[in-house]
Design goal:
heterodimer; A: alpha/beta; six-stranded mixed beta sheet; four-stranded parallel beta sheet; globular; B: alpha/beta; nine-stranded parallel beta sheet; 12 helices; about 50% helix; about 10% strand
Amino acid sequence: MYPDEYGRFGEFGGKYVPETLMSALATLEADYDRLRNDPEFQKQLHFYLRDYSGRPTPLYFARHLTEYIGGAKIYLKREDLNHTGAHKINNTLGQGLLAKMTGKKRIVAETGAGQHGVASATVAALLGLQCTVFMGEEDMERQALNVFRMRLLGTEVIPARSGTKTLKDATNEAIRHWVEHVTDTYYVIGSVVGPHPYPMMVRDFQRVIGDETKQQILEQAGRLPDSIIACVGGGSNAMGIFYPFVKDASVQLIGIEAAGEGIETHHHAASIAKGSKGVLHGSMTLLLQDEYGQVQPAHSISAGLDYPGIGPEHAHLFTSKRASYEPISDREALDAFVTLTRVEGIIPALESAHAIAYAAKYAKTLPSDAIVVVNLSGRGDKDVHTVEQLLEGTL
Amino acid sequence: MTMRGKVAIENRLRTRGERVAFIPFVSAGDPNEEYSYQLILELAKFSDVIEIGVPYSDPLADGPVIQAGSLRALQAGMSFPKALSLIARVRVVTDIPIVLFTYVNPVIQYGPEHLMKSCIQVGVDGLIIPDLPYEESEEMRTLTNQYSLALIPLISLTSYDRIEKIAANATGFAYCVSSLGVTGERSTFVNNLEDFVRTVRQASPVPVAVGFGVSQPQHIKALSAFADAVIVGSALVRRCGDIDDALKQEDHEKAEKALADLIEFARTLALS
């Protein structure tokens, strides 16, 4: 089973962090190991997931989209219906409770689009924790409404002004902040990235998506799906829905990377298609870098996918050929955003629109008795402003 | 022929006499290659060891001052191979032990064994890799030992029961991180610093240096009671920013003056 005792998924993962954090990571590993099997912790987590966030989320057979596309049956796992509008809350409830039950009073988090920041701020308000969120200065402009939501929830939002001023740098700043406050602060990472045990822990808190999907598809269709499709930035929603199916060899797992303006250009976030092996944010993984190991800026229309690396377990699923990863461009995602909205009356997050776009292309090539599940990881309210500017005058 | 490698560093720090040894940190190529070259040669005249940083896009262990220095150097075209060439030029003139400070990702891309050979070739004596903790360092420990180079570990106030194994494997010197947090100037130190450094010294077969936050003559006086060496980075790199500001205004006289001020400031620290 992955990860191994060194936190490695094959050749990826590990702990590449300053020495100051090593004891904190060891303590976290021990705490998590104890609490994951603690009935009281599990009871509380289950309670909040159900009564606070609204789980289980539905698995919706998208009949209209299926008919519109013509091909495989498309099902949508409705993570957009979670409290705060995305799958991020599954993880922040888990880590928030972990922080609370280990006596921490403060949490710190990074955020790209603001979804993880809002989910962290929400859980901090719920559990009475003090919360600081780092957000790239550029993202703060792109997602001004989420900045206000976090502040409304009582969270301090600090602009990350270093480097590319996006998620990568917000993560650097959050880690630096954690190094300085490590004795009283818990770091809530938002994706399956970072040093061990984070990629494992975030996966475990997100696997509820896949566990529910498996049960729901068996109830609704009487069999496992042929393919599961999910977008990948760091990769937490994808890891969450993939993980319970990793051993079901008949189920194809397809992660969708942001191709931005095209993977042949310099403006994309395709860490698997165009990246190479190296260390980013504490783990060995695949990332966008130049020949000397300088991390290269990523680009995507969606702030949540605008990240130059990928979780180490995805890197492992890719190199071991258990999952495949496909690029979808800004343009294709935008078209899928409009299509799903018009055909099903569901406005998807731009991140999730990447998965929808690929599903539409792919389903067309499959027979009508095939089953494709798409993880609709978040709702698109946060993106309406961006899309309005991009589509101005075309509707 | 002068001795090189880890022995050069260890011997230099052991023969410091009553004085605490002085280790300045500069980023290679900050604010540009020529100023960096001059600066390193001037520092070599009164320092014991020089730590030269390879500028990196994502310096996780560094505060805003060294991040800015890294950025200046990268914008002036510095790269991993160019930093090694700069050291080769410096090595022609001075025998001072040189430690290369680099994050782990550039090392992986350059190739660990390739780096060992280049270090020997250009005259680097040891390495500091701040995001390569003990658990991930086996390959680098083996290689540096094989090439007689130092692999200088960072030991922090939160290392607790990890101190012994890290310090026992230190070569060159053991680097005590004096405060929680990233690099940067600080006005005071934590109360238990002396106990911490003494614990490291007990476990370490090599000299013990203190860094992170050291920026004033009185810091160095205080540290000299229990440390073999002090490392000063941000206080110097901030002054490299003054040189860069002057260069941007095309005021070369002012740039020369800023360089002279930096060197004078470093000399004052070295003699404290």
